[in-house]
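Dear support,

I submitted the protein below through the web form. The confirmation email said the job was done, but the results page showed an empty box. After a refresh the structure appeared. I'm attaching both so you can tell me whether what I see now is the final result or a partial one.
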Amino acid sequence: MSAAGGGRPGALPPAGYRPRRRAEEETPLQVLFIPEDAEEPAQVFDFARLTVSPELQQAFAKGFVQRTKAGGRLRRLGSAEKSYRFFRGFATYLGTLNTPPTRPRDLLPVHLDGWRLERQNYASLWHQVGEMIKNLRAVPGLGPELRTALNQRQPEHANRRRERANPSYSRAEMQRILNAARHDVRQAAARIRAGQVLADRWRAGDLDGEPPQQQRRGRLAAFVEEHADVPRTPRGAPQWWVRELGTVAEHMEAVHLSALEIAAFVILLVAMTGENGSAITKAPAGHHRPDGHAGGIASAIVELDKPRRGSRRHMDRPLVDLPKWAGARQKPPGRGRTHVRGSGPRSGCSCSCTNSPKVPAACWEATGCWSGGPAAAAEAWARACAPERTATSSGPGPRPGGSPRTPQQAPGRTPNLPTLT
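What the results page shows now:
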């Protein structure tokens, strides 16, 4: 990090580099978006599909290019898709009018108000209006009347007031949620440590005198730790001796986190750091150990990234182990990994995925998580903590035995969890 400006030197392209045009002259309504994250695919957004005049299509495309340009605030594919959806929704509304506007300067504040009235029952209306205003500010050729309205402070609407009147979980409820997350994280850490010790014993030849089944378990743990998969036949099925030892999910979770445990990790780290879940799930495995592995209280510095903050996007977050007098458990000899606290060479989330710099995402794929991602896993984790709800509830709203904010008893779980929606 640079001490003067708080930034970092950028990687320069090779000599003679010419950037690829995002909107070609032949197809100006097709805008290419290349995410900053190389793991996300590039995508072309077609503004010719919008149900407005060609002149408005081109103006909206230029506004989208302005919002997603290099150095802008929209750097991830999800953010670009959301911006395009708002442009498309606004164009759909304009297309339903008896006399729709045909030029950017024909757009008036009443058009934005009409689009907003159609969404007045949305709980996230205040957020949608803010995003639509940002989109329109980037559109060239707007008339002075709409431009003035976009720069004015928006009045607070009923949905925002209701949201403030219905606050989030109480301190006691949050404590129960975090206690449940700590419970799952500690169980996962103990299980994974035991699996890693077994894998190391097999590599060192210490299992030669053990029963054949134990030797196979050590061999399998070492293989799963290195390859994030089980040994398979040429047809892709697990080998016979792997099936005899258990299911693929059981073998993967012996040295990796399960999807629900990753959700518990994310929830716990969000509460500990105060950062958004997206910043936590994108956290890299790379870290710095200021303690130098000297044997004192373990500490690690992990760099988090929030692209929407612009020049202040990079943040260094310290993770510190608990002192011995606070009940911190001792690590096995020769280990120096992070399990919420501390850090180490194998991973930043107590699993063995080293193939990707984005450890949480790599663990998610390795454990066969569904396509819903972190949000779906967090909801599934909440339901797993309160299994009596799952038989009768399938979405937001009141649950049997309590309101959406009422704590309920979860069998086998102490302390209780509130109902999560």
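Response: this is the final, complete result; the empty box was a page-load delay. The longest helix spans residues 171-204.
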